[in-house]
Amino acid sequence: MRIFKLLTVVVACFALFAAPVFAAETVKVGALLAVTGPASFLGAPEAKTLEMLVEEINAKGGINGKKIELIIKDTQASPEKAVSFAKQLIDEEKVFAIIGPSTSGETMQIKNIAEAGKTLLLSCAAAEVIVNPVAKYVFKTPQMDKHAVIRIFQQMKKMNISKIGVLSSNTGFGKAGKEQIEKIAPEHGIQILVNEVYDKAATDLTAEVTKVKAANVQAVINWSIEPAQAIVIKNIRQIGLTIPVFQSHGFGNINYVKAAGAAAEGVIFPAGRLLVADTLSDKNPQKAVLVDYKKKYEAKYKEDVSTFGGHGYDAMMILAKAVEKAGADKEKVRDTIETMKGFVGTAGVFNFSAEDHNGLDLNAFEMLTVKDGKFVVYEK
Q: SS3 for 36?
């Protein structure tokens, strides 16, 4: 009986001390991504990218000898699911950091949860409100909405466009972009003559684009990340409008072009350089990173790379670099990311600071267009 009790104590002590030791052998990273559902065009390439990178990092021995344990939760773009999974990852899984969510609406729902849990959050969503105002533990890898808007307005000025129509979806991304367009337009001499919001699940936007036509605008901006982007273009051309169509940086997936068909020809939008990686000068600081990621992703998954997968790439590689430098200490890694300079990613060259948890500037964007069904640099 005494022996049994002694063994019980020994086992209990071993469990008490061994569990943290084993846990410390890995860096547990959670990911909240819309792998399926209406935003799968964002989350699916992000998830594939993370799995590819973790496989590659672990095959090389991990980070400072620690393997990455990746836990992906499919939110299906649901803010409610994002909240539930975020709490699960923080409270139950005790993750070191969270990558994602894929959408702005989801990210805003869990921003305070990450802060309260003192858990690093590297969002793959674009809305500026994610990092403005700055939250201590929250960062994001996509470029700023305001920079995308400015690049569009700069291009419009070159084309002598001053009167526009605006279409946007009723999502976090759509709302944030609409607000930036309205705020920045006066600074660039742009008048918004018609401003329509549509449902993210819309399958026909003829009524909205007809209002745009009636307003006699010189160009239209559509701001969304949904498949409705392709529908907007189709409907605009179907009613005989031949004015320039500008899309947000959410257009950076060739599947939108395929869905819109011939109507996509000539669409103009700001994007990171991943979509035109092969055409960049060898002197471009991003080229080597972009070409390497593009080559590996397309070889592994037999599909075109997208800027959205790139956001996942940047999040994981920024985290990995910080862990490599600071060790598996949450606070030190947070501090390391906040002071990281010159990190070359797919979205641009990141220079973080205490005031800037995005780290990208206006130069992160290139103006692209669709020519013969492909993305090319816009040169007019």
A: coil
